[in-house]
Amino acid sequence: MTMQAAAPTLDPRAAPPERAPAAPAPALFPPSAAPARTGTGEVCAHHGEIVQGLFYSAEGVLEHGLVTLPCPLFRTRARFRPLPSGPLTVEPGDRTRARTAARLTLDALGCTGWGGALRLESNVPLRWGCGSSTTDVLAAIRAVADALGAAPGPGWVARLAVASETASDSLMYAPDHAVLFAQRRGSVLADLGGPLPPVQVVGVNTEGGGVETLALPPMPYTTWEAEAFGPMLGLLRRAVERQDPAPLGRVATASTLLTQRHRPKRFIPQLLGIARSTGALGVQVAHSGTVAGLLFEPGPRAAGRVGRARAALARLGLESWHFSTHPAQPELVP
Description:
Blueprint: E1 39-56, E2 62-83, E3 88-91, H1 96-108, E4 115-122, H2 132-147, H3 154-165, E5 179-182, E6 187-191, E7 200-205, H4 223-242, H5 245-262, H6 268-278, E8 282-285, E9 291-296, H7 302-315, E10 320-324
Parallel strand pairs: 3-4
Antiparallel strand pairs: 1-2, 2-4, 5-6, 7-9, 7-10, 8-9
Helix pairs in contact: 1-2, 1-3, 2-3, 4-5, 6-7
């Protein structure tokens, strides 16, 4: 494909101004009826995205959106002990977004005067783009709701998550349902109709220290780049409908190459070369992060291809890990 040398950037007026969505309306849940028990919540992380860019909403407005790649290798667990009065605390103490999520959840469930103790345990890497903040927030929301006997749907949780942390991935829908998600509005732009097709992923961290993912601004896509995301979404719909990982890999690679123009990552050319030499389906990245992944089709040839890919990455000095996105397949540790 020949790149246009001076393609105009999108007029920011074409998209509505970014703003946090309103939190869900309070539920009809009188505080005096709330069960006094410890609630739990658990959320698996993600490994960046299959695609992230600009897409048209049902109203014909361009919106920033993404399709998340679930990663069962990393996860966050939360426990919440509610108190009818007193402070709301979180441990570790620096997880302020999770504390905000707990506060908003209590308020939305009609327990505005309540406090409690929130404890988080997580192995999600920080600043890699794997959803460390989002898993904290979602686990907190689920734990508070569980403590109060509530079972909110993913749309309700999504609005609370974005209100808590400005932008969120679609982990409240994963891994059973793939959606095109407006990460700064907490709404679904398109339902892809099922889960993503299963893939084997060999992951690496392309930068040593990571980045502050929530501080990164939206990417300034050009007009022609924005138009390219429509066909990508169509191809991704086909991948989900047919449970075919091949078009999934093509979409991931195309989105990676577009992102590389605005937010380049180290080793992407080498990863693309390894993908070609080992028979990978494609390369995916955390568009606001530092991780990248080689995608492989599950099956009898996967083990050999994965092994060759990891050996090639090791020769580059890159430590890798391997996991399957399919819940029925065994999970592999780094």
